[in-house]
Amino acid sequence: MTTSGRFWSSLVLTLAAACGGGGGGGGSGGGTPVTAPQNLHYPLSVAIYTLETPIAPNVPTVDGTVATYTSTPPLPAGLSLDPVSGAVSGAPTAHAPRTTHAITAENAGGSTQFDITISVVSPVRFAYAVSREDSTISIFSVDTASGVLQRKGYVLAEFEQLQPEKMVVHPAGRFAYVVNAGTNNISIYEIEPDAGWLRSRGAVPTGAGPHDIVIDPAGRFLYVTALAVDQIWIYSINQTTGALAPIIWPYPSGVQPSSLAIDPAGRFLFVTAYGWPDPPGTVSQFGYLSAVQTYFISPATGAIAPTGPPKLLNGARPLSIAVDPYQDVVYVTLEAIDSVLPLTFHPVTGALGYLSGDFAGDRPLAVSVHPSGRYAYVANEIGGSISCYTVDTQSGNLAVLDTVAAGNFPSCITIDPTGSFLYVANRYTNDLRRYLINPENGTITMVDAIETRNGPTSLAFAPGTRPAIWKPRFVHVTNSASDDVSSYTVDPTTGALSETGLAALAGDRPLSIAVDPHVEYAYVANNLDKTISLFTIDATSGALTEAAPTTAINGNPTHVVIEPSGRFLYAVAQNVNAPDDGFLTTYSIEPDTGILQFVITQEIGSRPTWVSCDPTGRFLYCANSGAPSGGVSSISAFRITLALGIPQVSATVVTSGVFALGFHPSGRYAYATLQGTNSLVQYAINGANGALTLLPGGATSGLKPTAIAFNPDGRFCHVGFSGAGGGHVASFGIDQTGAPVVPPSTTSGGLGPIDLVAEASGRFVFVANNFSNDVSIMSIDPITGALTVAGSVATGLAPTSVVVSSETR
What we know:
Blueprint: H1 3-9, E1 38-41, E2 46-50, E3 61-63, E4 68-72, E5 79-81, E6 88-90, E7 96-107, E8 110-121, E9 124-131, E10 136-142, E11 149-156, E12 164-169, E13 175-180, E14 185-191, E15 198-205, E16 210-215, E17 221-226, E18 231-237, E19 244-246, E20 251-252, E21 257-262, E22 268-273, E23 291-297, E24 304-306, E25 311-312, E26 318-323, E27 329-334, E28 339-345, E29 352-354, E30 358-359, E31 362-369, E32 375-382, E33 385-391, E34 398-405, E35 410-415, E36 421-426, E37 431-437, E38 444-451, E39 456-463, E40 470-479, E41 484-490, E42 497-499, E43 504-505, E44 510-515, E45 521-526, E46 531-537, E47 544-546, E48 551-552, E49 556-562, E50 568-574, E51 582-589, E52 596-603, E53 608-613, E54 619-624, E55 634-640, E56 647-654, E57 658-663, E58 669-674, E59 679-685, E60 692-694, E61 705-710, E62 716-721, E63 728-734, E64 740-747, E65 753-758, E66 764-769, E67 774-780, E68 787-794, E69 799-808
Parallel strand pairs: 2-8
Antiparallel strand pairs: 1-3, 4-7, 5-6, 7-8, 9-10, 9-39, 10-11, 12-13, 13-14, 14-15, 16-17, 17-18, 18-19, 18-20, 21-22, 22-23, 23-24, 23-25, 26-27, 27-28, 28-29, 28-30, 31-32, 32-33, 33-34, 35-36, 36-37, 37-38, 40-41, 40-69, 41-42, 41-43, 44-45, 45-46, 46-47, 46-48, 49-50, 50-51, 51-52, 53-54, ...
């Protein structure tokens, strides 16, 4: 017998199964007999719906004729049962606990029945990816229907809050907490309810080696494992401020407490003890003191007390634990034997009992149970895979379903509350992968992957009272010949622009504008007077007010950008020391005033026209168009140092008359408009250093391509061409490799489209037309990506740059 076999033979193996069915009959009076309907079936038998979100109709199949459909009890508020077709549809308007609804299809001859289990949960508004290696938290809005994560930016942890390990969000969605393994403390954040931004509220100390963190279902108490000192720390949560206060001295745990879980009723705390390797002189393969301990939780104080002795695991070294949402079962991953083990627990005493374990992949790191309780998933570090299981809903035993590829070192599995999507954070490939969960059988299919910052270890969701919806707010346009900036409010339904008062005066020949992620400040590069202007943005109207004296810059600035955390601004300028040379200048942004502070200036390529950050904020790129006298056209790539924002040279690629840059929302690809070849080209981004590799292909649609704009979901990109005939905008589909699909659709608006931007809802593109002195408003076809001109608005003279600011509501 193998070692693994000996381990499993020491456990109690239980198997259970159950099945059932039903039907109907028929009869009639004195006429032709009527046959009762039979075999009613709904494709979605267990449904978890999101508050205030329209559901996909659940349409049944049935044999025979149905006169009417009824539900007992009635469906949750906002959902309706069509009495003729039997379809369940609508949008839930109130929370609903898990309830079984008996749907009856009947006619004069009889009836047949099918049970549907429905619950209604709060929508997820925001997602937060914790990156241990650089102590950052990336912030995303979440589309509840598609599961798409849309970037908002990131925050850097405060001083002495380093190496974040895991994040949890308070059940009310107002506060978040992060355990920091490098500084032995817990960061406290307040979540802005509309924007999702995190506001630091300080930190509290905890034991050495904090590793896992959990909040009880009522949101009153927080528990942390201190791995290095074998302790559990317990805190009470202030429901108004989110502040943490230790409620008792640290509680001793087993050896190396590796993970925590609390049952849905908040009765028990489960703690895994990883244990120690084999003591010297022994021959055991597994080591010793691996166990799972159950504790009673005091509902009054949050204090814990063991329910009995720990459940020993024969040195199997547990790494992660999860609780079934509906059965009294926990699931534990075991590193030493590459397995996942279900354990039952008594609902009154908490006593643990063994079930039949199953093998997982190599070094299973994390386990998560589907919200329906029907499936379980395990992330395996070595080899990078996800083991998928069905859960026996009578016994809690697991059956292998499938194994699916993940990235390198999948460190966590997170399932959205509806059970529609599964997300895996891959620590060594720096990405988040999204999988679609088949609700009928639990299989998963990878949908997409997006780059993150360095070393993601945790992904947490923040709920709200309504889904997060992006709406455009303001558009700002620099006008190079009238030396001003036009401001507009945006009608979120039609995209129509309404000018806000008089244009704000800028410097001489304003060429570029950048708005910070919080939509508080705008910065304008004034080319001829060699300055950068600072404006505050009115939160209601979007109107600009000059806020401080302009900042002088060496050379003639051509383009500015703010990196995604809002801490630094980068500007490229020409003619600094010699005609057609190029320099990149870095400024830090004072958060309370927006004032720029000089950091460093660096020489780059010849005649830079564009500067931009990749979506993660790790890398910076400069487009150097090259001098007519022989300067080389190139793209300079930099890695951005986290603390000071200083760009460090990574690599340079030679191009042909590059003008502008753009990035796929996934962060995997960069794109450039090349006026030397009148084309759009694609580059792969090296995730380690930001270096670019030219990919085969390319696309064109005319002469003199200018700027690039991507739909937020990355399915379409739009490119301005300002050449012969007044120019046009070309819209390309983007395939799974990130390549533009030809031929594009083309749309003509104003004359000389020089810059364009897609707003965050993905419904509109705004185009600055340099020759016709206006902004075109174009609506985006959600299926094809084609643009339709929806209107235009006058600007100042010779507009050169356009930005749109959006908000989540």
